[in-house]
TrEMBL record:
Record has Transcription as a keyword: yes
Domain HTH tetR-type: 14-74
Full protein name: TetR family transcriptional regulator C-terminal domain-containing protein
Organism, as annotated: Ruegeria marisflavi
UniProt KW keywords: DNA-binding, Repressor, Transcription, Transcription regulation
A Pfam match: TetR_C_6
SUPFAM superfamilies tied to this protein: Homeodomain-like (SSF46689), Tetracyclin repressor-like, C-terminal domain (SSF48498)
């Protein structure tokens, strides 16, 4: 009889914690990280100050969790999109490039939130650790897609070379993501995706074709 009740309590606690993270991201996206006070977050979430302190060790702890959530959501939205079973690895890689450079991943809201956190990343060691962890997560997952795409093309780069290729491809994607979110009106429909596919393909020596919006 007790076990189901404990399970429900854990789910409820996690749901409340996630709601506080969402409220924090909403507030930072609208007013900037300086507005993310405990009271401001509580007002945004419609909860008491005590509830925030119950789930987080202060405001900074909640902001760290919010930044982790934002970056992880972007990575998951990029990497976990629809794919066809058995399709070539290069086609899967092209899907990742497309997802990285189109909404909701590349958008003024997503880039604005990232920019709002950036000052903390530069001055706060714990925030820098969160940034490092999410960067390596995306880059490692990108590298895991590059390896089979090159293998299909008859290439087998060394681990060192594969790492360098992943760094370079990630840098291209990041740069286009930033410009596309900061200045969306500066680019025509599909322009960033085409540039991304051409650039990543050139780095890897592959032809990456736009897979379109559907899997």
């Amino acid at each position: 009889m007790d076990s189901p009740r404990r399970s429900f309590t854990r789910e409820s606690a996690e749901s409340r914690r996630e709601a506080l993270i969402r409220a924090t991201l909403t507030l930072i996206g609208r007013k900037g990280v300086q507005a993310a006070t405990v009271r401001g977050i509580a007002d945004e979430a419609g909860v008491t100050l005590g509830l925030i302190r119950h789930y987080f060790d202060g405001k900074d702890d909640l902001i760290y969790a919010a930044y982790q959530a934002h970056m992880s959501q972007l990575t998951d939205a990029t990497m976990e999109g629809p794919r066809r079973a058995g399709e070539p690895a290069a086609h899967q890689l092209a899907r990742i490039v497309r997802a990285s450079l189109t909404p909701p991943v590349s958008s003024p809201q997503a880039v604005g939130l990232w920019a709002g956190f950036l000052n903390m990343v530069q001055r706060d060691p714990r925030m820098a650790e969160v940034h490092s962890r999410t960067y390596y997560d995306f880059r490692d997952r990108l590298q895991a897609l590059i390896a089979p795409a090159l293998d299909e093309a008859g290439e087998a780069p060394s681990p060192e070379r594969l790492r360098a290729l992943a760094i370079a491809c990630n840098a291209v994607i990041d740069g286009l993501w930033l410009e596309g979110g900061a200045l969306p009106e500066a680019f025509g429909p599909g322009e960033l995706v085409n540039i991304g596919l051409t650039s990543v393909g050139a780095i890897l020596g592959l032809t990456l074709n736009d897979p379109g919006e559907e899997a």
